[in-house]
Input
Amino acid sequence: STTELSYRSVEFYRERSRTLSAVLAQSAARLPMEGHDQPIAAALVTTNFFEELGATPASGRLLAAADARADAPPVVVLGHRFWTRAFGASPAIIGNSIRIAGVPTMVIGV
Output
């Protein structure tokens, strides 16, 4: 089922839940990316999203709790299909910055 919650609400439930094994969230978005004429499809997710789903990175790493700190630099995990189409599946993109919505964002994984 789908419920609309703010990120602050998700954090509230994650910190206080005593009965749920995990609380995670995602939100669909379309974001402008430098070098692309049309906005790209994106999913904004909580840092535990991939871990709780049992995902493993094809390259690089997935999100960590430290990535959500207010002073943390913006990071992105690329979807495999997008990585292949936009970057030729090159692992060289890991650790490099791309501009998403005008913001330099470090690619940390696929």
In short: The mean pLDDT is 89.
